[in-house]
Design goal:
The structure is a homodimer. Chain A is α/β, with parallel strands linked by helices. Chain A is built from 12 helices and 13 strands. In chain A, strands 5-4-1-8-9-10-11-12-13 form a 9-stranded mixed sheet, sandwiched between helices. In chain A, α4 runs parallel beside α6, α7 crosses α8 and α10 packs across α12. Chain A is globular and about 75 Å long. The first copy, chain A, starts with a strand and ends in a 15-residue tail after the last helix. At the A-B interface, α8, β13, α10 and α12 of A face α8, β13, α10 and α12 of B.
Amino acid sequence: MPITVTGSIAFDSVRTPFGERERMLGGTSVHFALAASFFDTVRVVGCVGEDFGDHEMDVLRRRGVEVDDVERIAGGKTFFWRGDYGWDLNSRETLATELGVFEGFQPKLGERSLASEVLFLGNIQPDLQRMVRAQMPHARLVALDSMNLWIDVARDSLLEAIKTVDCVILNDAELRQLTGKPNLVSAAQEVLGWGPQAVVAKQGEYGAALVTSQGFFSAPAFPLETVVDPTGAGDTFAGGFMGYLATHPAGKLKDEALRQAVICGTALASFNVEEFGTARVERLRGEEIATRVAELHKLTQFNMVSLPLRDNA
Amino acid sequence: MPITVTGSIAFDSVRTPFGERERMLGGTSVHFALAASFFDTVRVVGCVGEDFGDHEMDVLRRRGVEVDDVERIAGGKTFFWRGDYGWDLNSRETLATELGVFEGFQPKLGERSLASEVLFLGNIQPDLQRMVRAQMPHARLVALDSMNLWIDVARDSLLEAIKTVDCVILNDAELRQLTGKPNLVSAAQEVLGWGPQAVVAKQGEYGAALVTSQGFFSAPAFPLETVVDPTGAGDTFAGGFMGYLATHPAGKLKDEALRQAVICGTALASFNVEEFGTARVERLRGEEIATRVAELHKLTQFNMVSLPLRDNA
């Protein structure tokens, strides 16, 4: 089932301990779409400025991503972000955020975008997420991401948006902030109580956790010796996750499919961070993903044994 | 195979968002021994002050722990630690550390302690770790823990100690500090290059990772809705880990046994944090451990599927 995604399209200037790059193609929709494109057709709803060229658009088109609903605004500038990562890549400082055309972004969904049965509401103002959601009442699988800013300044609207989706995908810190519950399991269960059937807590270098009414699943990040640039890892994860579920319409919210989706998201994200920007995922091949999924299986499995426990010493 | 452990025996005063407790029984050797006692006999080498009573010693004795080599020093005071945890339990502040008799601790191993074939060198001054290790040349399985202080002030001695052990168990932050490598996989591989055959990176609420020459294994922490007191979780993990391996002398450093040992450590640690101090582990039953191990199996497993990947979109 084709997937519609709405969220930022950006230029990112990034410095990490491994180097720096200026104005790389980035943003939620880009990272998401490239990852999900390995599974199904992705339709991007977004906006860019005049500085966004055919070269950038072609990166998406080459992966079959439909960009008819990417509005290019005359005289406008594409969203720009500049950030600097610390030595262990777990902290980052935002040096500049220039919203540009993204500030007045009003998602406009054409017929094809509206017809998708899978929808990913990337991190944008929750009012806009709700507006898009409302236009796609027949979507069979809807997930949402957000960020600390919206939890701070638009919490009520975000809660309304969350009520309308099947799955919430957030960082674990955001889940805690959103619910006021320091414990991850409690926080996720609170969100499940609002309506969604699944909560995914992204945990950066530690992987991701899935909480549903059926239980808990945890997947580590794929262990890499060199992580070059974590920018977009979360959106790439979401792309792999939603992409996999889009190919499993029947079992989309069954625990087994959700677990496999988490693993697919984990695999895709692990490629994203190996190089700057979209470089690695752009030239990724399907068989590499399959290999990494198999490796993730190998490094999480263990055999059960009967334990030689001494109850009364 | 019986296990000898050397490390602190302490009184801990702890405040967490769930309450506070004064002068609870604690310390590396105590948490380790209680956990490992479910698998085999533990022999503790340590020292306490006059303020350490039979009541405390009985907590260990009830679990079959041998305390002949716990020296009670007349006129001395038992190691004391006071700490305060933040709202999400991931940060803690040390409010007081009174070394007491631990300051002059000289491990004295009696015949039975010397005869153990498994040795856990808890976090003490590395010179002492090496001294104990040297007295037990026939030990078949030796593991070591340490801390940021020793990495700072006794790095050379710690490196010498590490060369003499089979397994290093550290927090991931300590592994990074020790090796100067921000990447966990690289850091662990550096340590493997020094001699040990296995490195366990403890990751707190995120679980633990195992790195050997044969590969990587990752286990999440057991998801708990309420974590009351994380004090001693790492030592309890080490106790479950080493306890399990002590019962598997043949396969002690085979990947499969090491993975199962990580799971046993994870299970034990999850009980430790459910209540203050040693309260929960003191009344733990073997079947509860087995149940939790089975639950950990359930929440980490997924079925492999052939992926519907679209290579050329």
